[in-house]
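As a point of orientation, let us examine one representative protein, giving the amino acid sequence and backbone structure tokens.
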Amino acid sequence: MVSALGVAVVGFGWMGRVHTQAYARVPHHFPQLAVRPELVTVVEDVPGRAEEAAERFGFATTARDWREVAADPRVHAVSITAPNFLHREIGVAMAEAGKHIWIEKPVGLTAADARAVADAVARAGVQGTVGFNYRNAPAVAHARELIAAGEIGTVTHVRVRLFSDYAAHPESALTWRYERERGGSGVLGDLASHGVDLARFLLGEITALTADTAIFVPERARPTGATAGHTRATGGDLGPVENEDYVGCLLRFASGARGVLEASRVAVGEQNTYGFEVHGTKGAVLWDFRRMGELGVSRGTAYQDQSVSTVFVGPGHGAYAAFQPGSANAMGYDDLKVIEAHHFLRSIAEGTPHGATLDDAVHSATALDAMSRSAESGAWVTL
């Protein structure tokens, strides 16, 4: 018996649309789900945007204030895709109202924010899923299995990189993303949060780190109207960029492994260059998001001059079978969010967490806070 589950989306920028499309698609890819999402309300304070979303995607109602959702008995689950500075207030309120939440990373501005939302979810007994989508790639799931099975020996070191050029243009508008009060950290919260989650997902807990950060585009023009995504602005008053464009970080893991995490939002020539290389005493696994369905694998007994094979993931890896019938058929970014939606809805149906949780968000945010402290002091920080 499939039960209807009323859902709301709070914040309808690009990510709000991605969540909405994932809700629409999840029953097609995961028909065994015991709940079926129904789009009840979309919340957006930019005039006309909620109404456009309702007409396009079929939400029953619209709202300008997210508090209307907290009080709406039709809504059982909420996607929180609003700017970072609103995560804590909305997340805590929705959990206290008995709503399950699917919230985007980094879950607030600080680890204290993420912990407040996690505590509210735990007290209310609701489910909380976090938008760490890259761990959902079938190739990443396969890499984790190979590492856990000892196929590459004992892990010695990992390199995680997240390079993008979305903020490289000097005319990129000074939106909330560049302000401490509303965005918190810069590339730390936006990209390095994913890097920390991938590192933990593959290798386990991080115990210490040291980091360096930099701002390379110090001023940007203030936008004169509503923005969506990475809008450009010219002619507006210039304002200071208050958070970092770049981070380089050394990591130590509880296992004894070492790591390097590097992220940049101003890397000219790089578009979504996200991935990792994990090396062990007998081999390695290598993944590049831009070739999402491929995993480089080196294993054997040669040690020196050992070759790397390309594994094209297929129905036996992660959630791949829900999308494609045979190996090497391409999946895309939005598919990872459909998998995330499935984790969220399955968690609600079964009453037990699946996928990335608020605890994962707290661990990631704790590491990000430690990177900020380390960049200020120049010292190693113990987590």
